[in-house]
Amino acid sequence: MSLDDRKLEVLRAIVEDYVETQEPVGSKSLVERHQLGVSPATVRNDMAVLEEEGYIRQPHTSAGRVPTDAGYRLFVDRLSKVKPLTPAERRAIERFLIGAVDLDDVVHRTVRLLAQLTRQVAVVQYPSLARSSVRHLELVPISTTRLMLVMIADTGRVEQRLVELPGPVPADDVTDLRRRVNEKLAGQRLSDTPPLVQGLVDECAPGSRATMACLASVLLETLVERSEERLALAGTANLTRGGVLDFQGTLRPVLEALEEEVILLKLIGDLEPSMTRVRIGDENKIDNLRSASVVSTGYGPGATIVGGLGVLGPTRMDYPGTIATVRAVARYVGDLLAQN
Amino acid sequence: MSLDDRKLEVLRAIVEDYVETQEPVGSKSLVERHQLGVSPATVRNDMAVLEEEGYIRQPHTSAGRVPTDAGYRLFVDRLSKVKPLTPAERRAIERFLIGAVDLDDVVHRTVRLLAQLTRQVAVVQYPSLARSSVRHLELVPISTTRLMLVMIADTGRVEQRLVELPGPVPADDVTDLRRRVNEKLAGQRLSDTPPLVQGLVDECAPGSRATMACLASVLLETLVERSEERLALAGTANLTRGGVLDFQGTLRPVLEALEEEVILLKLIGDLEPSMTRVRIGDENKIDNLRSASVVSTGYGPGATIVGGLGVLGPTRMDYPGTIATVRAVARYVGDLLAQN
DNA sequence: GCTTGGCACTCCCACGGACAGAGTGCCAGT
DNA sequence: ACTGGCACTCTGTCCGTGGGAGTGCCAAGC
After folding, report:
1. Residue-range definition of the domain harbouring residue A160
2. Chain A contacts of B236, Cβ < 8 Å?
3. Where are the alpha helices (DSSP H) in chain B?
4. Over the stretch A67-101, which tens digit does the pLDDT of each residue have?
5. Which residue of B has its CA nearest to A160?
């Protein structure tokens, strides 16, 4: 059975009212608050159908209706109109982001801004190394047998690692190493580097091969394996808005999930399409986040995407507003990155 | 009036029982659970005195007694015996901390470890730049008019900033800049650098003075002004243990406070004495943390202190255990840093 | 003078019934 | 196909009650 226009309209009204009041919505108050042009009884019939189709449900017999995950999904996909940002919000975004001095700063400001505007928990992924290229590799002698390896990516990320050398290496050799490493790797996408690093070792004169091998292993770790992704988080206090009613009684599972970087990355990390992605309740595929929704999108300079950002809140959230804000912030951040 | 030994013993018993059960403790159950050698009536008399002195209070007439902040304070200062760590805990600490590859890693592992062992919220401050010395300054040309300044501190911290130069600077000049900057600043405590940086500009030949001035201002920002302190946080989910009963009904103020780096630094940052510090309830001087206690201490290689770490939990916490754990973790981290 | 048992009193809290309110489902009528 | 009417159901709340825990005080005992 397909839903006619009025039924969809009823669903939209239910979602909107429930999001606003946080209370199950009944047929009578619905017709009072919206110009549906029909009587409560008619609405009740529509509701019965919507319930049968799984879009809404009753917390208990003879209570109002509440949207299900499927209901929110339908709402997001077909019923919600984009809600343009207010000028005040636009200004807030601009004011917040100008004056950022480095990548850390940009990310921190962004995540706070996002949390503040959406009044939800915000997550911003640092530009992914996998999507970055090597701009420069620096080797700084710390002692005769120790180097600090500093990798500067084109996205602004800087990673450093300590390299323990097998034996003392004179300064001139370090200069030579630096030159060779940069010639080979600078400008390359990080994901393309592993064979090149191997090549560096192979091409090395036997005398310095041990040193290079050592450096190479740290390079591989830094470039691909470890600490691949970083994130920033803000706005956890927003979880307490609306009492403990959202999140079925306890914040614990949500807070636990927020501490797991792996989980967060899964949530905001799927960057294939440059679309804004909305995951509602169970769609997150994470038990702890059954009653949470995530709105995320990719960001990056121009059309390329270097990382993800998004917000997490109760399934009962203002989707149109949140989606608009997330998109807008992502675009501003992208522009900001493009300037560097 | 001074409290005799038995009254103190009663206070200790009240604190211990209350911490364990989270319920107001009455005279009868007290004598049952502890070998006080007196009758409930006697204990009641003692309790009346303790209440008069402000160490305990009744949530309502004819309920049991609950320690006040002052009561906890007395308990911590005079009544609690150190609770040695279990071998399992020691092993956990060691296992957790070996294998850390860089400073970021050390800090992250530490904060998670601390949260796990104490089952509270853990905070670890990165080694303070103010207490670090410059190990090396690196200048990496990004383009002809842009340099990346990388500062490596002896504590392992690495900070980077982009420098926009007033005009193009050839590679040789960068080498020269790097040499001069390092000669002047390497080995210096960061807090001593500002006059030296000024000196660098003054000594500069007029031709390159503009460049140097530009670099100097970024140097100053990096070294002293900005992003001075960083922190890591873990275990917020532990706030939900014991229901919402701790923290008078809502986590919101606590979560809010935890988002403010400034506040956290105040809490764990007072590093003057190398003692472990305990702040109970109002002693925090922060309204949002009325019902929270903070146990913190400094850490660093050997006897020096480079940063603070600690945990935050309900005033109703296991002080002896927490203090022991915080101390032990700080010591292990210090040892770890000393190895580098 | 400290300690103790006894006792009356207070207050919380959990339980249970009654009740109003909101909302539904169904049915007959238009 | 929509509507008004009606009976029904369920919740949340209010209130009164009783049990229980704990206290404060007092008079007696060591």
Report:
1. 130-223
2. 236, 255, 258-259
3. 5-21, 27-33, 40-52, 69-74, 87-97, 103-118, 171-185, 193-202, 206-220, 252-259, 261-269, 319-339
4. 999 999 999 998 888 889 999 999 999 888 888 87
5. B158
